[in-house]
């Protein structure tokens, strides 16, 4: 049985949920395989309508969803209400993606002298296993971005629910399944399984064609290995850890220390720091006492919410203790924990750039929670060499005074460094908050993600679940409709 | 030392080539890393000019290249001359891809109420290791499609030459390196290494960011494992084996048995059958004695050229012996070998559909060379279930009589089956011959390729070497030029 807990008390939250049996996993996987023909065969407009029906159904039950999720995650009603809206907005965005049709990536090369005519299109890869995350009980969970993008692509989806919010997962799963059935989706298009053994059995099932995951580096690597070692390996799209370095340039530090300190403290402690975009590393000019003092003051005023689980809380405590014990690392400031057994104490430490470089890679490891390391540098010119030693990250941030030519010159150089090491480079902003828009890229080089060409957020997240097929010299009547529509055009310019 | 051999005699062809030392591999990899900044920083137009310079230089030396390659591969002057032209055409196609610019995949989402502005573009992934194939000494070798597409993307390239044509590789490498240097490419943009240990060391080098491979399933899987087990794993794009099923529908069999038989025999024996697109499995209607007789006659008239190496020849002999020994498999026809120790005897065997299904997966394994298995079926309705048991393939072919409604109905059903199992579905054609055009997709589900979303031939082959980066709320002056150009537009429609 899978028991959810209330992070505010550490006590069981509601009834436990049964683990999915092996037989049930097999039945669900085979049903997904059976749906892998008809579901992508439904028109794009009908698939968009089905996604909209799911979104409407979730919105209609938002209060119930938030209530149960709050008992299992303690993320609070405002945040969870916003997250449901983000989740349903995401489902509707993929309806727009379906209407747009560009994701089909049609390329037509007409026949020529001794050259066959080729019509290329993307097709759904097949049933997708989605591994839900702990820290977003809606947006990266049962009805989250992986599910929305895979369903849009025409892939049946089987979600492995996260143990941290089992009842939220059951309720969400029921709402999604009912809405899809009501919208005419074939049986097998969507299901939820519970328990780690069920998830692993699912991932190994021959019917599964690809997998998406958001979570820890350790968990993600274990699942990636399972995918690679199957008799028929499958693509694994894992979004793992990130420490999201942020650089404060001297002009910005001097011009607006209080605003920077406030932004930093808010981003660091948002959601008890339980975000893959949490700003774990902050580089500030050495000797800028105003900024350090402002940071210390802002962090001291923070309150750390309860963490999602006892395990996450204990891991956070260990990571902070390791950091505190590191040579040349000293405490800069600490907030205070809210009440309850799993509340996190926001803590910020300080070191110098040379010591930081000497302490790599340990000092740049992700500490899931509201713990920050402030690194002081003498000259921005010294930063690129150290940043190059960090692994891949989801984001990199640069704060500059746009009126300072020194800042702007350094920002240009640092942006070029980040462009090769992170998925999203942010100017004068903070990494938490990932806008669900067409251009978004929530990904990055290893170990931020296992497949650096792909994103788990934004319109192009659908690309993970599509692979090309080309038709050579086919009679138009035998082509898929989208290629028949494109029949006359040589769409090469729009293509590569 | 790496010694090339003349397949016509089995004797050494020219002087041996030295294996690249560990130190030299490290130097080359570090030089590639050093070029990974400046090479993609060169304008697209200049990069296209550099590719054109390489193409021109290879064309100017085509006669020399063909001469040395013929002594090492025995593929013959006409084929090799055509292959040089294909190779230089491919380099020029990527010049067009650069001019087009669509591969940069720009998406701009403007800032809105509480939503940051995001500008997304693709960047070069970094230095690429290319593992050359034996069977295309030009088009899938030192200056082949992987090299051309990676250089176009802005990635420095280090080619691990194939042992089968070391002197061809040296000469090609010199021509490419000189042309690139003459065109202003930075030192380190391109190099060739020799020997399996050098290739493995290269693949493990931290400077290498991705790898491309065309070759055997066994070799490809070994290299894929190395990529996955690196401290920092890298994407591996392997194009492995394929048996390329072709189905002759009853109407087509009745209408044009001689033409089908001639096309089949030609495709089966082209290049001594040493193509990943070789038609290894031919499904024909049971009881159609005209077609069987025509196939037997056409195959009997074929002559098998020398194979590329003693190892390939011996593997072919073993694979054919295994097939001949299989239960329910009987010989249908054989051609004759050309002179020389490594000449292949084209051989075609026959079995029934039920026996074929019972003999899977062994009967559907790739036999690299001119060996075919003809499978007779009672009804085209029986084919989908058996085709579903085959692994992924690069291609699937359907021959139909367009005047036969039975054929066309069956063709539609079979195309839908193939669309989920192969990368290219061919109507009334043969799989050998992969047109280098914008729409081409030379890929396919496992085990045809290790990364089913990608192609190794055609304009979109460049996508393997590019990963996205998004700029959030950036001042236009700090954006890459291509994003500055796109600054005003919200290019979402063209995007996902």
Structural class of chain A: alpha/beta
Task: Note poorly predicted spans of chain A.
Answer: 490-496
Number of helices of chain A: 17
Between the first and last Cα atoms of chain A, what is the distance in angstroms? Answer: 50 Å
* Overall spatial form of chain A: globular
The number of strands of chain A is 19
Determine the strand fraction of chain A and express it as a percent band.
15-25%
- In terms of quaternary structure, the protein is homodimer
The description of the largest β-sheet of chain A is: 7 strands, mixed
- Using only C-alpha atoms, the radius of gyration of chain A works out to 24 Å
Question: What does this entry look like structurally?
Answer:
Two copies of one chain form a homodimer. In chain A, β15, α14 (353-358) and β16 form a beta-alpha-beta unit. In chain A, α1 crosses α8 (196-204), α4 runs antiparallel to α7 and α11 runs parallel beside α12. Chain A has 17 helices and 19 strands. The first copy, chain A, is an alpha/beta fold. β18 (422-427) of chain A pairs parallel with β19 (466-472) of chain B.
Describe, in short, the structure shown.
With 496 residues, the first copy, chain A, is an alpha/beta fold.
Topology overview:
The structure is a homodimer of 496-residue chains.
Chain A: E1 5-6, E2 11-12, H1 22-35, H2 38-41, H3 44-60, H4 62-73, H5 77-100, E3 107-109, E4 118-124, E5 128-131, H6 145-153, E6 157-160, H7 166-182, E7 190-193, H8 196-204, E8 210-214, H9 217-229, E9 236-239, E10 246-248, H10 250-255, H11 257-269, E11 281-285, H12 289-300, E12 303-304, H13 310-325, E13 330-334, E14 336-337, E15 347-352, H14 353-358, E16 371-377, H15 383-387, E17 393-399, H16 405-419, E18 422-427, E19 466-472, H17 481-485
Parallel strand pairs in A: 5-6, 5-8, 6-7, 8-9, 10-11, 10-17, 11-16, 12-14, 15-16, 17-18
Antiparallel strand pairs in A: 1-2, 3-4, 4-19, 13-15
């Amino acid at each position: 049985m899978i028991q959810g807990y209330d992070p505010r008390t550490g006590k069981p939250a509601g009834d436990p949920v049964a683990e999915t049996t092996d037989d049930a996993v097999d039945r669900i996987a085979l049903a997904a395989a059976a749906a892998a023909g008809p579901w992508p065969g439904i028109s794009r407009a009908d698939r968009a309508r089905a996604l909209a029906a799911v979104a409407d159904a979730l919105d209609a039950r938002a209060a119930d969803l938030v209530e149960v999720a709050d008992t299992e995650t303690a993320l609070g009603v405002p945040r969870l209400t916003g997250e449901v809206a983000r989740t349903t907005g995401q489902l509707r965005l993929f309806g727009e993606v379906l209407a747009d049709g560009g994701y089909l990536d049609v390329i037509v090369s007409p026949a020529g002298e001794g050259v066959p005519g080729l019509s290329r299109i993307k097709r759904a890869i097949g049933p997708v296993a989605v591994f839900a995350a702990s820290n977003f009980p809606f947006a990266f969970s049962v009805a989250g971005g992986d599910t929305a993008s895979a369903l849009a692509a025409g892939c049946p989806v089987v979600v492995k629910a996260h143990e941290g919010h089992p009842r939220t997962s059951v309720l969400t799963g029921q709402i999604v399944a009912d809405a899809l059935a009501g919208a005419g989706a074939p049986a097998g298009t969507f299901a939820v399984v519970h328990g780690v053994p069920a998830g692993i059995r699912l991932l190994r099932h021959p019917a599964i064609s690809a997998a998406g995951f958001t979570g820890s580096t350790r968990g993600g690597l274990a699942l990636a290995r399972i995918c690679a070692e199957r008799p028929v390996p499958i693509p694994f799209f894992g979004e793992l850890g990130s420490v999201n370095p942020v650089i404060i340039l001297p002009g910005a530090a001097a011009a607006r220390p209080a605003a920077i300190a406030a932004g930093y403290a808010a981003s660091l402690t948002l959601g008890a720091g339980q975000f893959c975009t949490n700003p774990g590393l902050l580089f500030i000019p050495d000797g800028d006492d105003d900024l350090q003092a402002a940071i210390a003051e802002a962090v001291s005023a923070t309150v750390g919410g309860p963490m999602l689980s006892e395990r996450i809380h204990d891991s956070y405590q260990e990571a902070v203790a390791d950091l505190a014990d590191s040579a040349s690392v000293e405490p800069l400031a600490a907030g205070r924990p809210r009440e309850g057994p799993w509340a996190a104490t926001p803590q910020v430490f300080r070191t110098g750039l040379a010591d930081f470089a000497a302490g790599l890679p340990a000092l740049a490891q992700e500490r899931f929670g509201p713990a920050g390391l402030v690194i002081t540098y003498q000259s921005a010119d010294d930063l690129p060499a150290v940043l190059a030693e960090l692994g891949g990250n989801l984001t990199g941030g640069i704060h500059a005074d746009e009126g300072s030519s020194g800042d702007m010159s350094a920002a240009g150089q640092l942006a070029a460094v980040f462009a090769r090491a992170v998925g999203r480079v942010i100017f004068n902003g903070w990494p938490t908050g990932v806008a669900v828009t067409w251009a978004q890229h929530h990904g990055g080089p290893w170990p931020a993600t296992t497949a650096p060409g792909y994103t788990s957020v934004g319109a192009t997240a659908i690309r993970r679940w599509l692979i090309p097929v080309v038709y050579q010299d086919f009679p138009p009547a035998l082509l898929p409709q989208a290629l028949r529509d494109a029949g006359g055009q040589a769409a090469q310019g729009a293509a590569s």
